[in-house]
Amino acid sequence: MASPFTIEEIYPDDGDDAPRLPRRQAGSSPQDLAVTLLADYTLRHRARIPSAALVALLAESGVSTAGARAAISRLARRGVLEGSREGRRSSYRISRAAAANLSGGGRWILAATTDVAAWDGCWTIVAFSLPQDRSTQRRALRGQLRWLGYAPLYDGLWISPYELSAQGRAQLARFTLGAVTVFRGPQAALDVIGQRAPIDAWDIEAIGRHYEEFLRRWTPLVPSLRSGGVDGAAAVRARTEVMDTFRRFPTLDPRLPLDLLPAGWLRQPARELFEAVYDGLAEPAARHVRSVVARFADGAQPDIQAHTTADLLAGVRDAEPAPERDGASATVESCAT
Asked: Which residues form the Transcriptional repressor PaaX-like N-terminal domain (predicted)?
């Protein structure tokens, strides 16, 4: 299931020195896969993995040797990975900045698809006007708004059901330089034909199809993983793919209020299925990653561990917090106050 969003929108840059995570392509790029693999098994201790082992793991997902080595090199140049060399052996680990970002991002993915917040009936509106010759700035602003959970109701007017946080305001200020206005309030009903509801800024039918496709793809696997029938490279491939797909839902569906959505909205069933697959494959996948790494490293690799969804919610490691995402822990007050 391809997503229209880039990984920068899921784990955005934080200033000039932040790691630049890879752009989303149709399907999973080698860089996507490498980041997911390293985050899923080395994030807790920032364990180092020999480059040859990472190439071998990526090969199990169909990435060529040349493609894997190019992806590793690009991630190192972007500051996502840190390299080291001992003799002729090179190894890589997630950089401290990328680890902090990924840890916070993992926590947000689970919180954003688990927490249920009441809605006060108000909308936050962000209106901006940028000249045509500032197209790069306009694209960056739109990406940031999408990341914060906003969608375009009209060109230059984006909305969200949740308050814009102080950190979100600061992030927008970096992109607009005064060319933006933010306000919040309820929708005023008009007795006209064709009035557009704010929820129409999101393609609800398309989001629903993404959920349905996710359920169709992963539900048949549950009996096999519960019986221990998924092991080795298959377990790693499945766990990587399910994370790579599920982590896009909080951006597609930024905790839209359930009372505005069709009955039987599939956000929670998708969340429960993700937990069953991701947690159910944790141990067999980690065993396989350790076995592959052991072929290229000296001795056991106890720092290679798989975390669960509970670990993600608790925070996989003591890292600096990732950027705040609006609506992740909204409190309900009257929008008139």
From this structure: 32-96
The Cβ of residue 111 has, within 10 Å, a number of other Cβ atoms equal to 16
DSSP state, 201? G
- Taking CB atoms within 8 Å and a gap of at least 24, the contacts of 55-64 are 56/292, 56/295, 56/296, 57/236, 57/289, 57/292, 58/30, 58/33, 58/34, 60/233, 60/236, 60/237, 61/28, 61/33, 61/236, 61/237, 61/240, 63/30, 63/33
Place of tokens 């539900």: 219
pLDDT tens, position by position, 264-291: 999 999 999 999 999 999 999 999 999 9
Phi-psi group of 165: left, alpha or beta (phi > 0 → left; psi -120 to 50 → alpha; rest → beta): beta
pLDDT of residue 26: 41
Rounded to whole angstroms, the Cα distance separating 314 from 329 reads 15
Architecture of the domain made up of 122-199: 2-Layer Sandwich (3.30)
Instruction: State the Cα–Cα distance between residues 240 and 237, nearest whole angstrom.
Output: 5
Tell whether the torsion through CA atoms of 83, 65, 306 and 217 is positive or negative. Answer: positive
For residue 300, the model assigns a pLDDT of 67
Residue 309 contacts residue 145 (beta carbons within 8 Å): no
Where along the chain do its domains lie? 122-199
> pLDDT digits over 38-84, tens only?
999 999 899 999 999 999 999 999 999 999 999 999 999 989 999 99
Place of tokens 């790069």: 136
> Residue 220 gets which letter from DSSP?
G
Residues lower than pLDDT 70 in the chain: 1-28, 115-117, 175-178, 190-194, 300, 317-337
* Amino acid in the structure at residue 243: M
